[in-house]
């Protein structure tokens, strides 16, 4: 009876897991940057998805899951509003409903970003009372996602999504949102061998890498799913052939084994098809490490701290997906240290239940003596900071706000993995400020339980006088070029008209973009700035309901000619002939 209950619970868990994750589109090796986010420690990707679905601090449109560290970041943005950045060992999951720019039926579930009516009128913000006093607002319809000024259908109007307009003469109008069934699938080149991630593969392999038979895509037993021919009409989901409809790293299929939901398939690579003078690629396998150690195939099986490595094929004590089946070409033999996912050096999961994974110290090929061997060049260690301060080895041990630094080898009050063992070449001595992970300046964990970490103010090498030393020239502009990082004008209002909060203030918005933390970014008073390489100047707002918004600052390209002066909002802006105008499509503020 207990076994029956366990099996039943397992089946129910699998069904719930599949249902929740099927709401998301996954992109492996990607992330997006967002000022607003929440961070959680989780055990599985399902837990992360549940955190996103239950998020109350903001509308969660996507989450980032770092399987190796079991970290979860919930985010209000997605790839429609922010740039995608590459990051190894992360996966970006986006709610599909927020990616769709078409409607099903009358579009009550439409969550796209269209904000113009069918006649071209701009939509009024749902929370605004001007020019029309709405009777449908975010407070009256909390589940309808009435955010910003996006077209929505909160009342089930038969004509589809609509909005109040900013035209005083037109209270509301429907929006011209495309019907999902009318969209035409793109032309895809169909291949019977696999290239890249195998999205275009249309061969007839129908068995997984472990030999399990594939379930037909149109079937719902034993695996219930939404990767059906109807939902993915352009992905070749014929019969039970291996396919890649959702941008996984290779073709896969659901299996007919009730205990195994899905597995990757081993399909022939187009490079395996013989051609004139074709030659298989040479893979050099090394017993010493070069670069990031991806080609290392030695037998070291212990981490830098002396912990034994768990076998890659095992799932205890660490459950993971870096298995020999999933990474067949990465040499995941026994429990040897490897680098299957482009980390900075070989690593392994450990047999210690308290330590998920650690880096390994494998011999460098440079340590093997050879003819006319030459000692490696060691980067000079500095007691002042240049650039991002990675080479800084000084003794500052206090943060910009005056908090004492926690020793890097300590785990209280802050638990972390930036330890001397994990980062042996980064000078993590005592509690001195360092930059082991390529932040923008040296930093440290603090001894204050309420503040995990902060940047440090270490002396710049430019501050040390030398022969004929000369400070660098920084061009400060009162108009904007590119992303506006050099903008030093006096605009202090956002695109929607909200007043900017002073950068030194912590109310109503609490933040760490302060003049102390960003001393060279011109965070004077409450002027719009771009201290963190956003796509244009922005500011925190004095409205407790709106954390931050972009600003509309004058572009240097708006000036009619060289040396001319323009006026905007009562300010004069001097621009020059070599300034370049860039146009941006501003994303909605969150």
UniProtKB/TrEMBL annotation:
A single GO molecular function term of this UniProt record: endopeptidase activity
GO CC entries: extracellular space
Superkingdom of source: Eukaryota
Classification via SMART domains: KR (SM00130), PAN_AP (SM00473)
Domain (Apple): residue spans on this chain: 16-97
Disulfide linkage: 193-270, 214-253, 242-265, 288-365, 309-348, 337-360, 384-461, 405-444, 433-456, 479-556, 500-539, 528-551
Designated name of the protein: Plasminogen-like isoform X5
PROSITE patterns in UniProt: KRINGLE_1, KRINGLE_2, PAN
Kringle domain residues: 101-180, 192-270, 287-365, 383-461, 478-556
UniProt cross-references to InterPro entries, sorted A to Z: Kringle, Kringle-like, Kringle_CS, Kringle_sf, Pan_app, Serine_protease_kringle
A Pfam family that the UniProt record links to this protein: PAN_1
Name of the gene encoding the protein in the UniProt record: LOC120045106
Originating organism: Salvelinus namaycush (Lake trout)
């Amino acid at each position: 009876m207990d076994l029956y209950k366990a099996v039943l619970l397992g089946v129910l868990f699998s069904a719930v897991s599949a249902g929740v994750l099927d709401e998301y589109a996954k992109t492996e090796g990607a992330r997006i940057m967002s000022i607003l986010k929440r961070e959680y420690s989780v055990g599985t990707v399902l837990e992360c998805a549940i955190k996103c679905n239950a998020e109350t601090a903001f509308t969660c449109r996507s989450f980032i899951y770092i399987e190796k560290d079991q970290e979860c970041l919930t985010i209000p943005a997605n790839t429609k509003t922010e740039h995608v950045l590459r990051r190894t060992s992360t996966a970006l999951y986006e709610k599909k409903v927020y990616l769709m720019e078409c409607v099903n039926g009358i579009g009550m579930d439409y969550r796209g970003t269209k904000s113009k009516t069918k006649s071209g009128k701009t939509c009024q913000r749902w929370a605004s009372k001007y020019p029309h006093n709405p009777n449908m607002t975010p407070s009256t319809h909390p589940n309808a996602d009435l955010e910003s000024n996006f077209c929505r259908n909160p009342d089930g109007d038969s004509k589809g999504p609509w909005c109040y307009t900013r035209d005083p003469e037109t209270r509301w109008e429907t929006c011209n949102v495309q019907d999902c069934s009318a969209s035409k699938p793109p032309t895809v080149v169909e291949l019977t061998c696999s290239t890249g991630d195998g999205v275009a593969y249309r061969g007839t392999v129908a068995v997984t890498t472990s030999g399990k038979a594939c379930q037909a895509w149109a079937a719902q037993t034993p695996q219930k799913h939404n990767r059906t021919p109807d939902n993915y009409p352009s992905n070749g989901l014929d019969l039970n052939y291996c396919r890649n409809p959702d941008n996984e790293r290779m073709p896969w299929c659901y299996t007919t084994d009730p205990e195994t939901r899905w597995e990757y398939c081993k399909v022939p690579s187009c490079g395996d098809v013989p051609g004139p003078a074709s030659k298989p690629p040479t893979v050099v396998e090394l017993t010493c490490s070069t670069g990031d150690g991806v080609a290392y195939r030695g037998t070291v099986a212990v981490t830098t701290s002396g912990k034994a490595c768990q076998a890659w094929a095992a799932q205890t004590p660490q459950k993971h997906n870096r298995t020999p089946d999933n990474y067949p070409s990465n040499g995941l033999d026994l429990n040897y240290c490897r680098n299957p996912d482009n980390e900075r050096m070989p690593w392994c999961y450990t047999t210690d239940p308290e330590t998920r994974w650690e880096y390994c110290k494998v011999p460098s090929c440079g340590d093997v003596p050879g003819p006319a061997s030459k000692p490696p060049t060691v980067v000079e260690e500095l007691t002042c900071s240049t650039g991002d301060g990675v080479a800084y080895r000084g003794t500052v041990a206090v943060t910009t706000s005056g908090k004492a630094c926690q020793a890097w080898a300590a785990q209280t009050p802050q638990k972390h993995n930036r330890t001397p063992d994990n980062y042996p070449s980064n000078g993590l001595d005592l509690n001195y400020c360092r930059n082991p992970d390529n932040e923008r300046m040296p930093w440290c964990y603090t001894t204050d339980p309420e503040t995990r970490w902060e940047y440090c103010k270490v002396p710049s090498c430019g501050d040390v006088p030398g022969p004929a030393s000369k400070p660098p020239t920084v061009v400060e502009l009162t108009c904007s070029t590119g992303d506006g990082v050099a903008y030093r004008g006096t605009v202090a209002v956002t695109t929607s008209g909200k007043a900017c909060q002073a950068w030194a203030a912590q109310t109503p918005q609490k933040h760490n973009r302060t003049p102390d933390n960003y001393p060279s970014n011109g965070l004077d008073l409450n002027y719009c700035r771009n201290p963190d390489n956003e796509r244009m100047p922005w500011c925190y707002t004095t409205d407790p309901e709106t954390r931050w918004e972009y600003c509309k600052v004058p572009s240097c390209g708006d000036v009619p000619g060289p040396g001319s002066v323009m006026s905007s909002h009562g300010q004069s802006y001097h621009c020059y002939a070599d300034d370049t105008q860039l146009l941006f499509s501003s994303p909605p503020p969150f």
